[in-house]
Amino acid sequence: MAAFNIAKFLTPPMPNVAAEYEGLEYRWKFLTFRPAYFKNEVYFLAAVLLYVAFYYIGKKANERRAHKWFEAHKHLYQAQFSKPIHSAGLSQDGNSDFFAFSTGRRALTSLHTTFTLRPRHDLFQYLFQVARGLIELDYKVYDEVELEFTFREPVGKEGSVPECVWAVVAKDELKKIRSERWDVTFTKTTDSPALPNTLAVMSEFADITANLLKSYGTFSLPAVLSSPAIQPYFRSLSLTDQPRTRPSRPLSPSERSKRLILTLAVPPASDAGATAPLVAAMFPLVDLIAGEGKHPGGATARGGLQAALRPETKAKLRRTREEVDREIGEEAIREKREEAEEQKAAARKKAQEERLSKLSAAEQKKALDREKKRMLRKTQGKVKMR
Predict the structure, then answer these.
(1) For the residues 347-352, what does the mean pLDDT come to?
(2) Of 138, 148, 242, 147, whose CA–CA distance to 187 is shortest?
(3) Which residues contact 26 (CB under 8 A, 6 or more apart)?
């Protein structure tokens, strides 16, 4: 009987279908559809259709933007790499992330090209970004493409790429790069007269900046970065030997990699090739840093950037890394010690609780009183020592 009452309670009421209905009606066999009864459902259906249309249009827009940029720069990849891209083209992860992996070039083990586009397929996330941009004046969101060149380093000996951190960054990008990348904490930020006033230099030592910004034959990095056509899309260019996030332990040489990272805002599909001159300039820059090949104008950089730095600069760079590794190592040891002490304290507490659970109520009260007195004496002793 109770089950019958519950089933009766859960059963929805019958719709009130008036026999005198005179509105629009569709019949098919035993089914009848009367649109006048569905008023709120129309708005719900319209919202669903809007979301689906936004998803489809946004998804296609992101695909078109990523593929347009890569097609406009594909000739550079094909000219520089024996394996410029996978046969299937750009790899895709979701609807806003695209990837390409290139390999087969002197001085480099690989080039990772990563697109991080706005979530045009997700209406709510897109509106959230727009709203946040209106509230936070320093919040900037844009379609980003990052080119990460990883240098090939000789095993067991000093390479031509120095262990250093250096970057040129758009000034409105400084806050973001400082918050997202631990490696740039090694640097100091300054202006350079060789660069536009919209760009800042982040460098460990002036010697590194002087060597990277000077002219080599007809190649000049400041001239490339000063181009008015490139400046709207340039976000940062960095040379680094450190990970993006602070490691939990000192890294061995085999776990480190030296990279040149170029970050750009993706141009609109109608002007996808606007950043091609800057991307093309990265390859002679790679060769200059690594000391490979001959550069425009016949200039060479034998020994790479490592050989161009002063001995005292290299010694300071080495000491900085030794100090950072020592701090990270001490912090890791301290964290392990604290973790071991916490585990011991938890084990003692568990053993004590098990022992107390076997005692009578009176014995438990006595044991707890003794523990309170012991803790009070311990606290008083610490106060007196201070």
Answers:
(1) 81
(2) 242
(3) 32, 33, 34, 35
**How far is 137 from 307, CA to CA, in rounded Å?**
44
- The candidate with the shortest Cα–Cα distance to 211, out of 288, 150, 326, is 288
Mean pLDDT of 57-68: 95
Residue-wise burial string across 234-243, b where 16 or more C-beta atoms lie within 10 A, e elsewhere: bbbbbbbbbe
Q: Is the dihedral of CA 154, 158, 159, 163 positive or negative?
A: positive
pLDDT over 60 at 295, yes or no? no
In the numeric block, the tokens 């594909």 are attached to: 74
Q: Where are the beta strands (DSSP E) in 129-194?
A: 144-151, 166-170, 188-190
Structure tokens given for 130: 């727009």
The pTM of the full predicted model, rounded to 2 decimals, is 0.81
Residue indicated by tokens 């990970």: 243
What is the Cα–Cα distance from 199 to 172, expressed in whole angstroms? 9
CA distance 200 to 302: 28
The pLDDT assigned to 13 comes to 63
CA pair distance 234, 212, nearest whole angstrom: 17
Amino acid at 141: V
Please give the mean pLDDT across all residues of the chain.
Answer: 87
Question: Which is it for the CA torsion 330, 332, 336, 338, positive or negative?
Answer: positive
- Please report how many Cα atoms fall inside a 13 Å half-sphere around the Cα of residue 31, on the Cβ side: 3
| Residue whose token pair is 């090694």 | 186
DSSP letters spanning 50-71: HHHHHHHHHHHHHHHHHHHHHH
C-alpha span between 73 and 172 (Å, rounded): 26
